[in-house]
Amino acid sequence: MTKENTLKPDHRLTVRFNKNELAKLENWLKKSTYHRNMSELIRHLLFKKEITINTYDASLDRLYEELVLVKKELNAIGVNINQVTHYFNADPDPSQKLIYAKKIAPLYEGTTQKIEKLFDLLSELAQRWSLE
């Protein structure tokens, strides 16, 4: 017996569904990532095989956008800190180093604020995940 014969069903069965039942099946088929057509879905349902359904929570989009924004802002602050640090280390004049040190202090404060915002967003995300 070849592999094709074992996988391909060879008996046809006709079944009728009302509108609500059909809508429910179509909804499951849309959400399923494994089933290519209605027949596969119904076979899995009949024989109690596990069906994988992916869900999407659109309310998390705002959180994801804010996380991306905070990441970009932290990256920009990090680039600025690296530039000032480079100038600080390259300049032999101690008075000039003091100027660079004064420039870098607000950047570190900005980093602290962004990290606090990041932790707030992550805790909100963790709360949502723990509720599901």
UniProtKB/TrEMBL annotation:
One Pfam family from the UniProt entry? MobC_2
Its recorded name reads: Mobilization protein
